[in-house]
Specification:
The complex is a heterodimer of chains A (175) and B (247). With 175 residues, chain A is mainly α. Chain A folds into two domains: 5-68, Rna Polymerase Sigma Factor, Chain: A; 95-167, Winged helix-like DNA-binding domain superfamily/Winged helix DNA-binding domain (Arc Repressor Mutant, subunit A, Orthogonal Bundle). Helix content of chain A is 65%, strand content 0%. Chain A has helices at residues 5-8, 13-24, 27-43, 53-68, 95-114, 117-128, 133-140, 144-167. In chain A, helix 3 (27-43) packs across helix 4. The radius of gyration of chain A is 17 Å and the shape is globular. Chain A starts with a helix and ends in an 8-residue tail after the last helix. By secondary structure, chain B is α+β, with helices and mostly antiparallel strands. Chain B folds into three domains: 3-50, no CATH class; 60-104, no CATH class; 111-246, Phosphorylase Kinase, domain 1, CATH 3.30.200. Chain B has helices at residues 3-14, 20-32, 34-50, 60-91, 94-106, 111-127, 140-146, 235-246; strands at 135-136, 167-175, 178-187, 190-198, 208-212, 215-222, 225-231. The longest helix of chain B has 32 residues, at 60-91. The chains are: A mainly alpha (175), B alpha+beta (247).
Chain lengths: 175, 247
Protein backbone atom coordinates (compact mmCIF):
# COMPACT_ATOMS: atom_id res chain seq x y z
CA UNK A 1 0.00 0.00 0.00
CA UNK A 2 1.68 3.25 -1.05
CA UNK A 3 1.85 5.69 1.81
CA UNK A 4 1.48 9.35 1.13
CA UNK A 5 2.97 12.28 2.96
CA UNK A 6 -0.53 13.41 3.97
CA UNK A 7 -1.36 10.03 5.40
CA UNK A 8 1.90 9.51 7.23
CA UNK A 9 3.25 12.89 8.29
CA UNK A 10 0.40 15.38 8.54
CA UNK A 11 -1.38 13.47 11.35
CA UNK A 12 1.66 14.32 13.50
CA UNK A 13 1.64 18.03 12.76
CA UNK A 14 0.27 18.88 16.21
CA UNK A 15 3.04 16.87 17.85
CA UNK A 16 5.58 18.68 15.68
CA UNK A 17 4.15 22.07 16.55
CA UNK A 18 3.85 21.31 20.25
CA UNK A 19 7.48 20.19 20.39
CA UNK A 20 8.66 23.22 18.40
CA UNK A 21 6.57 25.52 20.57
CA UNK A 22 8.19 24.17 23.72
CA UNK A 23 11.64 24.45 22.18
CA UNK A 24 11.20 28.02 20.94
CA UNK A 25 8.69 29.22 23.58
CA UNK A 26 7.17 31.38 20.90
CA UNK A 27 4.30 30.85 18.42
CA UNK A 28 5.88 32.58 15.44
CA UNK A 29 9.22 30.81 15.71
CA UNK A 30 7.49 27.48 16.27
CA UNK A 31 5.46 27.97 13.12
CA UNK A 32 8.59 28.81 11.12
CA UNK A 33 10.43 25.79 12.43
CA UNK A 34 7.54 23.41 11.67
CA UNK A 35 7.01 24.87 8.21
CA UNK A 36 10.68 24.45 7.45
CA UNK A 37 10.85 20.99 9.00
CA UNK A 38 7.81 19.81 7.06
CA UNK A 39 9.35 20.94 3.80
CA UNK A 40 12.47 18.96 4.66
CA UNK A 41 10.34 16.00 5.72
CA UNK A 42 8.62 16.11 2.35
CA UNK A 43 11.97 16.10 0.59
CA UNK A 44 13.27 13.19 2.64
CA UNK A 45 9.96 11.37 2.76
CA UNK A 46 11.16 8.48 0.61
CA UNK A 47 13.88 7.79 3.20
CA UNK A 48 11.29 7.04 5.89
CA UNK A 49 11.43 3.27 6.34
CA UNK A 50 10.60 2.52 9.94
CA UNK A 51 7.15 2.64 11.45
CA UNK A 52 7.44 5.65 13.65
CA UNK A 53 6.70 8.68 11.49
CA UNK A 54 6.08 10.82 14.57
CA UNK A 55 9.58 10.25 15.99
CA UNK A 56 11.03 10.77 12.52
CA UNK A 57 9.21 14.08 12.05
CA UNK A 58 10.16 15.30 15.51
CA UNK A 59 13.81 14.52 14.83
CA UNK A 60 13.61 16.73 11.75
CA UNK A 61 11.87 19.44 13.79
CA UNK A 62 14.65 19.33 16.33
CA UNK A 63 17.39 19.48 13.72
CA UNK A 64 15.69 22.41 12.01
CA UNK A 65 15.34 24.27 15.28
CA UNK A 66 18.92 23.50 16.22
CA UNK A 67 20.17 24.81 12.90
CA UNK A 68 18.09 27.97 12.94
CA UNK A 69 18.30 28.97 16.55
CA UNK A 70 21.82 28.58 17.90
CA UNK A 71 21.67 27.51 21.51
CA UNK A 72 20.96 30.15 24.05
CA UNK A 73 22.44 29.39 27.41
CA UNK A 74 19.80 28.15 29.80
CA UNK A 75 17.07 29.32 27.52
CA UNK A 76 15.20 30.95 30.34
CA UNK A 77 14.54 34.38 28.85
CA UNK A 78 11.54 35.01 26.67
CA UNK A 79 8.46 36.94 27.58
CA UNK A 80 5.62 36.47 25.13
CA UNK A 81 1.91 37.01 25.40
CA UNK A 82 0.42 33.57 26.01
CA UNK A 83 -3.22 34.38 25.63
CA UNK A 84 -4.40 31.11 24.07
CA UNK A 85 -1.85 28.78 25.61
CA UNK A 86 -4.24 27.24 28.05
CA UNK A 87 -7.59 27.73 26.41
CA UNK A 88 -8.60 24.09 26.42
CA UNK A 89 -10.61 24.27 29.63
CA UNK A 90 -12.55 21.15 30.44
CA UNK A 91 -16.20 22.04 29.96
CA UNK A 92 -17.37 19.21 32.19
CA UNK A 93 -15.98 21.03 35.24
CA UNK A 94 -17.81 23.64 37.28
CA UNK A 95 -16.41 27.19 37.13
CA UNK A 96 -14.46 26.86 40.35
CA UNK A 97 -12.85 23.58 39.35
CA UNK A 98 -12.18 25.10 35.94
CA UNK A 99 -10.47 28.09 37.52
CA UNK A 100 -8.29 25.79 39.60
CA UNK A 101 -7.47 23.72 36.56
CA UNK A 102 -6.64 26.85 34.59
CA UNK A 103 -4.40 28.06 37.36
CA UNK A 104 -2.59 24.73 37.49
CA UNK A 105 -2.06 24.75 33.75
CA UNK A 106 -0.62 28.25 33.97
CA UNK A 107 1.60 27.26 36.87
CA UNK A 108 2.90 24.20 35.08
CA UNK A 109 3.51 26.18 31.91
CA UNK A 110 5.40 28.83 33.86
CA UNK A 111 7.44 26.20 35.69
CA UNK A 112 8.22 24.43 32.41
CA UNK A 113 9.49 27.60 30.85
CA UNK A 114 11.93 28.28 33.66
CA UNK A 115 13.67 24.95 32.98
CA UNK A 116 16.69 24.80 30.68
CA UNK A 117 15.73 23.68 27.17
CA UNK A 118 17.58 20.36 27.59
CA UNK A 119 15.35 19.47 30.53
CA UNK A 120 12.18 20.86 29.03
CA UNK A 121 12.44 18.92 25.82
CA UNK A 122 12.93 15.51 27.42
CA UNK A 123 9.92 16.16 29.66
CA UNK A 124 7.79 17.16 26.67
CA UNK A 125 8.88 14.10 24.69
CA UNK A 126 8.28 11.77 27.61
CA UNK A 127 5.22 13.19 29.35
CA UNK A 128 3.31 14.89 26.53
CA UNK A 129 4.32 12.64 23.65
CA UNK A 130 4.87 9.39 25.54
CA UNK A 131 8.06 8.40 23.74
CA UNK A 132 10.26 5.64 25.11
CA UNK A 133 13.80 6.44 26.29
CA UNK A 134 15.15 4.83 23.14
CA UNK A 135 13.01 7.04 20.92
CA UNK A 136 13.92 10.16 22.89
CA UNK A 137 17.60 9.25 22.60
CA UNK A 138 17.21 9.04 18.82
CA UNK A 139 15.28 12.32 18.51
CA UNK A 140 17.56 14.36 20.76
CA UNK A 141 20.73 12.59 19.66
CA UNK A 142 22.01 11.58 23.10
CA UNK A 143 22.69 8.17 24.75
CA UNK A 144 19.81 6.40 26.53
CA UNK A 145 21.66 6.75 29.85
CA UNK A 146 21.67 10.50 29.41
CA UNK A 147 17.93 10.48 28.69
CA UNK A 148 17.42 8.62 31.96
CA UNK A 149 19.51 10.95 34.11
CA UNK A 150 18.29 14.10 32.37
CA UNK A 151 14.64 13.14 32.90
CA UNK A 152 15.24 12.34 36.55
CA UNK A 153 16.94 15.71 37.07
CA UNK A 154 14.30 17.56 35.08
CA UNK A 155 11.56 16.08 37.28
CA UNK A 156 13.48 16.99 40.39
CA UNK A 157 13.93 20.58 39.18
CA UNK A 158 10.31 20.86 38.17
CA UNK A 159 9.10 19.50 41.49
CA UNK A 160 11.25 22.15 43.16
CA UNK A 161 9.85 24.98 41.04
CA UNK A 162 6.25 23.81 41.43
CA UNK A 163 6.41 23.50 45.20
CA UNK A 164 8.07 26.91 45.51
CA UNK A 165 5.38 28.54 43.41
CA UNK A 166 2.75 26.78 45.54
CA UNK A 167 4.03 28.17 48.80
CA UNK A 168 4.39 31.66 47.34
CA UNK A 169 0.66 31.76 46.72
CA UNK A 170 0.69 30.22 43.27
CA UNK A 171 0.87 33.55 41.48
CA UNK A 172 3.42 32.41 38.94
CA UNK A 173 2.34 32.90 35.38
CA UNK A 174 -1.07 34.32 36.17
CA UNK A 175 -2.10 37.33 34.14
CA UNK B 1 19.73 -2.15 47.19
CA UNK B 2 19.65 0.77 49.59
CA UNK B 3 17.45 3.87 49.57
CA UNK B 4 20.08 5.97 47.84
CA UNK B 5 20.38 3.56 44.91
CA UNK B 6 16.62 3.12 44.66
CA UNK B 7 16.06 6.86 44.68
CA UNK B 8 18.18 7.19 41.55
CA UNK B 9 16.09 4.56 39.79
CA UNK B 10 12.59 5.75 40.65
CA UNK B 11 12.22 7.93 37.59
CA UNK B 12 13.00 5.17 35.05
CA UNK B 13 11.06 2.73 37.25
CA UNK B 14 7.98 4.91 36.88
CA UNK B 15 8.53 5.08 33.12
CA UNK B 16 8.76 1.29 32.87
CA UNK B 17 12.26 1.64 31.45
CA UNK B 18 14.24 -0.56 33.85
CA UNK B 19 15.45 -4.05 33.06
CA UNK B 20 12.86 -6.50 34.48
CA UNK B 21 15.29 -7.82 37.10
CA UNK B 22 16.19 -4.33 38.33
CA UNK B 23 12.56 -3.34 38.32
CA UNK B 24 11.73 -6.34 40.51
CA UNK B 25 14.46 -5.37 42.97
CA UNK B 26 13.14 -1.82 43.15
CA UNK B 27 9.60 -3.10 43.70
CA UNK B 28 10.83 -5.38 46.51
CA UNK B 29 12.52 -2.42 48.18
CA UNK B 30 9.39 -0.29 47.83
CA UNK B 31 7.36 -3.01 49.56
CA UNK B 32 9.46 -2.61 52.65
CA UNK B 33 10.38 1.09 52.61
CA UNK B 34 7.73 3.73 53.19
CA UNK B 35 10.16 6.63 52.63
CA UNK B 36 10.87 5.44 49.10
CA UNK B 37 7.17 4.80 48.53
CA UNK B 38 6.57 8.41 49.45
CA UNK B 39 9.29 9.54 47.00
CA UNK B 40 7.63 7.50 44.27
CA UNK B 41 4.24 9.04 45.10
CA UNK B 42 5.78 12.51 44.87
CA UNK B 43 7.29 11.66 41.52
CA UNK B 44 3.92 10.40 40.31
CA UNK B 45 2.30 13.60 41.39
CA UNK B 46 4.90 15.64 39.48
CA UNK B 47 4.06 13.48 36.46
CA UNK B 48 0.36 14.29 36.79
CA UNK B 49 1.17 17.99 37.01
CA UNK B 50 3.47 17.85 34.01
CA UNK B 51 0.82 16.21 31.88
CA UNK B 52 -1.34 19.28 32.48
CA UNK B 53 1.13 21.47 30.64
CA UNK B 54 -0.50 22.99 27.55
CA UNK B 55 -0.37 20.94 24.37
CA UNK B 56 0.05 23.49 21.59
CA UNK B 57 -1.86 22.63 18.44
CA UNK B 58 -0.63 23.51 14.99
CA UNK B 59 -2.45 26.57 13.61
CA UNK B 60 -4.86 25.84 10.75
CA UNK B 61 -3.05 28.25 8.46
CA UNK B 62 0.13 26.20 8.83
CA UNK B 63 -1.73 23.00 7.94
CA UNK B 64 -3.28 24.73 4.94
CA UNK B 65 0.06 26.10 3.77
CA UNK B 66 1.66 22.68 3.96
CA UNK B 67 -1.11 21.01 2.01
CA UNK B 68 -0.70 23.65 -0.71
CA UNK B 69 3.08 23.41 -0.97
CA UNK B 70 2.59 19.64 -1.06
CA UNK B 71 0.43 19.87 -4.19
CA UNK B 72 3.05 21.99 -5.94
CA UNK B 73 5.97 19.76 -5.11
CA UNK B 74 4.04 16.62 -6.08
CA UNK B 75 4.10 17.78 -9.66
CA UNK B 76 7.82 18.32 -9.44
CA UNK B 77 8.61 15.01 -7.78
CA UNK B 78 6.29 13.14 -10.14
CA UNK B 79 8.28 14.50 -13.06
CA UNK B 80 11.46 13.31 -11.42
CA UNK B 81 9.94 9.92 -10.71
CA UNK B 82 8.94 9.53 -14.36
CA UNK B 83 12.41 10.50 -15.47
CA UNK B 84 13.80 7.83 -13.16
CA UNK B 85 11.44 5.21 -14.59
CA UNK B 86 12.53 6.04 -18.12
CA UNK B 87 16.18 5.63 -17.16
CA UNK B 88 15.48 2.36 -15.35
CA UNK B 89 13.53 0.81 -18.19
CA UNK B 90 16.23 1.79 -20.60
CA UNK B 91 19.00 0.29 -18.51
CA UNK B 92 17.44 -2.82 -17.02
CA UNK B 93 16.99 -6.08 -18.88
CA UNK B 94 13.51 -7.54 -19.27
CA UNK B 95 14.28 -10.64 -17.23
CA UNK B 96 15.02 -8.62 -14.11
CA UNK B 97 11.68 -6.86 -14.45
CA UNK B 98 9.92 -10.23 -14.70
CA UNK B 99 11.56 -11.52 -11.57
CA UNK B 100 10.60 -8.40 -9.67
CA UNK B 101 6.96 -8.49 -10.66
CA UNK B 102 6.54 -12.18 -9.89
CA UNK B 103 7.89 -11.82 -6.35
CA UNK B 104 5.48 -8.98 -5.75
CA UNK B 105 2.50 -11.08 -6.82
CA UNK B 106 3.50 -13.86 -4.43
CA UNK B 107 3.11 -11.64 -1.38
CA UNK B 108 -0.13 -12.36 0.50
CA UNK B 109 -2.16 -9.95 2.56
CA UNK B 110 -3.30 -10.91 6.06
CA UNK B 111 -6.91 -9.73 6.61
CA UNK B 112 -6.00 -8.74 10.17
CA UNK B 113 -3.38 -6.35 8.77
CA UNK B 114 -6.03 -4.79 6.57
CA UNK B 115 -8.30 -4.20 9.58
CA UNK B 116 -5.33 -2.78 11.51
CA UNK B 117 -4.82 -0.23 8.73
CA UNK B 118 -8.54 0.62 8.76
CA UNK B 119 -8.40 1.10 12.52
CA UNK B 120 -5.48 3.52 12.28
CA UNK B 121 -7.08 5.38 9.38
CA UNK B 122 -10.28 5.85 11.36
CA UNK B 123 -8.32 7.06 14.38
CA UNK B 124 -6.43 9.57 12.21
CA UNK B 125 -9.61 10.82 10.52
CA UNK B 126 -11.29 11.30 13.89
CA UNK B 127 -8.24 13.07 15.30
CA UNK B 128 -8.03 15.40 12.33
CA UNK B 129 -11.31 16.80 13.50
CA UNK B 130 -13.54 15.02 11.09
CA UNK B 131 -15.76 13.26 13.58
CA UNK B 132 -14.72 12.03 17.00
CA UNK B 133 -17.99 11.99 18.93
CA UNK B 134 -21.62 11.10 18.31
CA UNK B 135 -22.24 10.98 22.02
CA UNK B 136 -20.08 13.02 24.32
CA UNK B 137 -20.19 11.97 27.94
CA UNK B 138 -17.94 10.70 30.67
CA UNK B 139 -20.81 8.61 32.03
CA UNK B 140 -20.80 4.98 30.90
CA UNK B 141 -24.54 4.85 31.65
CA UNK B 142 -25.11 7.53 29.02
CA UNK B 143 -22.70 6.19 26.43
CA UNK B 144 -23.78 2.55 26.51
CA UNK B 145 -27.53 3.10 26.00
CA UNK B 146 -26.77 5.54 23.20
CA UNK B 147 -25.73 2.61 21.02
CA UNK B 148 -29.07 0.87 21.64
CA UNK B 149 -30.95 0.39 18.39
CA UNK B 150 -28.02 1.69 16.37
CA UNK B 151 -26.04 -1.53 16.43
CA UNK B 152 -27.04 -5.19 16.36
CA UNK B 153 -25.00 -5.80 19.50
CA UNK B 154 -24.44 -4.11 22.81
CA UNK B 155 -20.84 -3.01 23.26
CA UNK B 156 -19.38 -3.25 26.78
CA UNK B 157 -18.73 0.30 28.00
CA UNK B 158 -16.68 0.95 31.15
CA UNK B 159 -15.31 4.22 32.42
CA UNK B 160 -11.65 3.81 33.36
CA UNK B 161 -11.16 7.16 35.08
CA UNK B 162 -10.01 5.30 38.21
CA UNK B 163 -7.19 3.75 36.22
CA UNK B 164 -6.27 7.12 34.71
CA UNK B 165 -8.09 6.71 31.41
CA UNK B 166 -11.37 8.64 31.59
CA UNK B 167 -14.08 7.78 29.08
CA UNK B 168 -15.07 10.83 27.02
CA UNK B 169 -17.66 9.48 24.61
CA UNK B 170 -18.35 7.33 21.61
CA UNK B 171 -19.50 7.20 18.02
CA UNK B 172 -20.66 4.81 15.33
CA UNK B 173 -18.02 3.78 12.85
CA UNK B 174 -17.85 1.40 9.92
CA UNK B 175 -15.09 -1.12 9.82
CA UNK B 176 -14.26 -4.59 8.54
CA UNK B 177 -17.43 -4.34 6.48
CA UNK B 178 -19.82 -3.69 9.37
CA UNK B 179 -21.05 -0.96 11.72
CA UNK B 180 -18.99 -0.96 14.91
CA UNK B 181 -18.88 0.90 18.21
CA UNK B 182 -16.03 3.35 18.71
CA UNK B 183 -15.32 4.37 22.31
CA UNK B 184 -13.16 7.34 23.10
CA UNK B 185 -10.87 7.48 26.14
CA UNK B 186 -8.18 9.97 27.07
CA UNK B 187 -4.80 9.82 28.73
CA UNK B 188 -3.51 13.29 29.50
CA UNK B 189 -3.59 15.12 26.19
CA UNK B 190 -3.85 11.92 24.15
CA UNK B 191 -6.89 10.17 22.76
CA UNK B 192 -7.40 6.43 22.69
CA UNK B 193 -9.97 5.04 20.27
CA UNK B 194 -11.37 1.59 21.01
CA UNK B 195 -13.31 -0.23 18.31
CA UNK B 196 -15.60 -3.07 19.33
CA UNK B 197 -17.67 -5.51 17.31
CA UNK B 198 -18.80 -9.14 17.65
CA UNK B 199 -16.15 -11.67 16.73
CA UNK B 200 -17.28 -14.34 14.27
CA UNK B 201 -15.05 -17.11 15.62
CA UNK B 202 -14.80 -18.34 19.20
CA UNK B 203 -11.05 -17.98 19.16
CA UNK B 204 -9.70 -15.99 22.08
CA UNK B 205 -6.75 -13.80 21.19
CA UNK B 206 -4.62 -12.25 23.84
CA UNK B 207 -3.53 -8.70 23.05
CA UNK B 208 -1.40 -8.46 19.99
CA UNK B 209 0.71 -5.34 19.64
CA UNK B 210 1.77 -3.48 16.56
CA UNK B 211 2.88 -0.02 15.52
CA UNK B 212 1.56 1.58 12.37
CA UNK B 213 2.71 4.99 11.14
CA UNK B 214 3.66 6.06 14.63
CA UNK B 215 0.46 4.91 16.30
CA UNK B 216 0.34 2.03 18.74
CA UNK B 217 -2.30 -0.60 18.13
CA UNK B 218 -3.57 -3.47 20.29
CA UNK B 219 -5.97 -6.15 19.19
CA UNK B 220 -7.62 -8.86 21.26
CA UNK B 221 -10.83 -10.79 21.52
CA UNK B 222 -12.82 -11.43 24.63
CA UNK B 223 -16.27 -12.87 25.37
CA UNK B 224 -17.24 -13.00 21.71
CA UNK B 225 -16.12 -9.44 20.96
CA UNK B 226 -13.25 -8.23 18.87
CA UNK B 227 -11.38 -5.22 20.31
CA UNK B 228 -8.96 -2.80 18.68
CA UNK B 229 -7.32 -0.01 20.65
CA UNK B 230 -5.29 2.66 18.87
CA UNK B 231 -3.51 5.73 20.16
CA UNK B 232 -0.33 7.75 20.14
CA UNK B 233 0.22 7.19 23.87
CA UNK B 234 3.32 5.18 24.65
CA UNK B 235 3.38 1.38 24.69
CA UNK B 236 3.44 1.11 28.48
CA UNK B 237 0.37 3.31 28.90
CA UNK B 238 -1.52 1.52 26.16
CA UNK B 239 -0.75 -1.87 27.72
CA UNK B 240 -1.92 -0.53 31.06
CA UNK B 241 -5.10 0.72 29.38
CA UNK B 242 -5.78 -2.65 27.73
CA UNK B 243 -5.16 -4.35 31.03
CA UNK B 244 -7.63 -2.03 32.80
CA UNK B 245 -10.22 -2.57 30.08
CA UNK B 246 -9.93 -6.34 30.38
CA UNK B 247 -10.62 -6.31 34.13
Amino acid sequence: MPRSFEEVVLPHLDAAFNYARWLTKNDGDAEDVVQNASERALRFFSSLRGEDARAWLLTIVRNTWYGRFPRRAGGAVTAVAEEDAANQADVSLDPEAQAIQQQTVEQVRGAFETLPTDFREVLVLRELEGFSYKEIAAIVGIPIGTVMSRLARARERLAGVLTTSDTSGGHRGLP
Amino acid sequence: MDCHEVEGLLSPYLDGELEPAVSTTVRAHLDTCSACRQRLANLESVGRMVRRAPYYQAPDRLRARLTQSRTRSTTRSQLLAWAAVVVMVASLSGSILFVRSSTRAARTVDPVDVVAQEVVNSHVRAMMGEHLFDVRSTDQHTVKPWFLGKLDFSPPVTDLAQAGFPLTGGRLDYMAGRPVAALVYTRGQHTINVFVWPEASDAVRSPDARAIRGFHVRHWTHAGMSYWAVSDVNDTDLDQFVHALQQ
